[in-house]
Amino acid sequence: MSGSKLGGFISKVSRSFFGKRMIIAKSRKDLDRMREVGELIAEVREAVREMIAPGVTTLELNEAAAKMMNDAGARPAFLNYQPSGMTPFPFVICASVNEQVVHGFSNEKPLQEGDILSVDMAAFYNGFVGDTAMTVAIGEVGEEVAQLIRVTEECLMLGIEQCRPNNRVGDIGAAIQKHAERYNYGIVRDYTGHGIGRSMHEAPQIANYGRPGTKEKIRAGYCFAIEPMLNMGTHETKTLDDKWTVITADGKPSAHCEHTIAVTPEGPEILTLSKKQKAALKQTKSETIAA
Q1: How much of the chain exceeds pLDDT 90, in percent?
Q2: Do residues 144 and 249 lie in contact, with contact meaning Cβ atoms separated by under 8 Å?
Q3: Which residue, among 97, 122, 120, 121, has the nearest Cα to 108 in the 3D structure?
Q4: Is the pLDDT of residue 5 over 70?
Q5: pTM for the complete prediction?
Q6: Residue 230 has what DSSP assignment?
Q7: Theoretical Cys-Cys bridge with 89: which of 81, 183, 187, 200, CB 3.0 to 4.6 Å?
């Protein structure tokens, strides 16, 4: 879930999330627990991805995610989440369709061919939080929409690549912004990434735009939730009457993806990978070394 956020919520709300903005470095034991919850929520995410198809409802996806988290001994982090001055969020996942940017409500309306769906989810396990999101095409979508999803995923990886000791938090947003602006996408400004650990929203706030070499210095042991949100049109958003669902101001599609990462001395480690994804990454690294 986004940070000014609620992964970003409007600047006034973001201040209540981050308090004094002290970044909390994680110990080796903490990082092991972050790896556990990261893999757990990644397994749920990938199982939900497999369910997504025309005719499926977001309420069905919500119920499936809730069962998987509960069966794994985890606690859904979004359910009943209540920032200061807001009503509790009533679902386990954020299910945002088409022009919905973030924090969408699950419902009984079947997904249709050509829709896109952004699913954001997080869980507490063994004292720590894993947070992740994806945008998935429902059946066949047009090339413009497919490109929006692809570029958002590319922005995520470019942002993650900047999560190295002695870089700056501003380097993350700058890398995302540079790539997104090549395609003239609107970069959502009201919602951001964030630090993460024992709490879902920790310092720092990580915007998806910025200047290189600015903001806090990145150190080994920091954990971040990096989550670009790109709109096909304007960057401007508005919130629906439910007080949670954020949509694009011009009604054009939006895409959102997110990984929880740890900063290690060697660079970024993506924590929200499934067992299958970790195995594939290990194989790719082995083949690269062999070559």
Answers
A1: 88
A2: no
A3: 97
A4: no
A5: 0.93
A6: E
A7: 81
β-bridge partners, 187: 230
Helix axes 28-51, 275-290, angle to 10 degrees: 110
The mean pLDDT value of the chain amounts to 94
What is the helix (H) or strand (E) element at residue 39, kind and residue range? helix 28-51
- Structural contact between residues 248 and 99, judged by C-beta atoms closer than 8 angstroms: yes
CB 18 within 8 A of CB 204: yes
End-to-end CA distance of the chain: 39
- Tell me the domains of the chain and their CATH numbers: 2-290 (3.90.230.10)
Rounded Cα gap, residues 54 and 31, in angstroms: 38
Select the more confidently predicted residue: 15 or 133: 133
Pairing relationship of beta strands 100-102 and 186-187 according to DSSP bridges: unpaired
| Alpha-carbon gap, residue 46 to 235, rounded angstroms | 28
**CA distance readout (Å), 28 to 25, 34, 156, 204, 218:** 10, 10, 25, 20, 17
Q: What is the pLDDT of residues 173-232, one digit of tens each?
A: 999 999 999 999 999 999 999 999 999 999 999 999 999 999 999 999 999 999 999 999
Query: How are beta strands 2-3 and 7-8 bridged, if at all?
Result: parallel
